[in-house]
Amino acid sequence: MKKILVATEKPFAKAAVEGIKKIVEEAGFETALLENYATKDELIVAVADADAIIIRSDIVDADILDAAKKLKIVVRAGAGYDNIDLSAATAKGVVAMNTPGQNSNAVAELAIGMMVFAARNNFNGSSGTELKGKKLGLHAFGYVGKAVAAIAKGFGMEIFAFDPFVDRKTIEADGIHYLENVNELYSTCQYVSLHMPANAQTKKSVNYDLLSLMPKGATLVNTARKEVIDEEGLLKMFVERADFKYVSDVEPDCKGFIAEKYLGRFYFTPKKMGAQTSEANNNAGVAAARQIVAFFTKNDITFQVNK
Ligand code: 3PG
Fold it and tell me: What is the CATH number of the domain that holds 121?
């Protein structure tokens, strides 16, 4: 019987785990659960007899893949798969997938919530500002960027998007201003929300040159990955621009260097929580389980990311 391991250092909501189990067991497979694990060794032991693994931001590197002797497929229940060593997976003949779009609403709601939080001075009781009428720049227009745009419209924001992989027609069809040049996004928008994946092209791409273009009252919102930020540039912005705010669902490595005196101009969630809702857990977890069943029963590789 095939064993599907759900390995989540940050567990899914209970209902999502039940949903996964139901799908796996109805297909005649068995589920194993490793939640809240503290060391890589625990994961190494757990993967030994797994035919498939469902993960979140859990690291699946060459050591894990080496230890997973029976593994055929790993599914990242979520969007970003920068936590999987894709070349090692390919070399081992392991299919890697994600579940695109399944948790995007949760992340989008958090991005908007963070904008409100920053606009209201981190809820410190002082007089803040409104989002209505402000210019919002979406740096990348995938599932999350699109969902942020849909909510931001309701707030009466004017929305701009830059995404080298999405054409003008698609962006304009959503009633959004299409920008061809990333510099223009940053120089136009008081709010910039990041929605690109972390990869070789995007790492450290949000740098001082871009950030310093932002108009007065600049707020950068990061529900993507810390790696896309050039942290030297970020620190320089804090020093030079008293109006600059940074709200993020991913703590920067330079957190310790952001001086006390900038308190109120930044906020970091204690643990990445963009996709941490029962709905998103359920959508992404259940989709992952379905994709695994479809892979084993119909050889369906629709969502494979290491082709
Ligand atoms: C994603 O890439 O889907 C999000 O960053 C969510 O990550 P998480 O599953 O670790 O919360």
Answer: 3.40.50.720
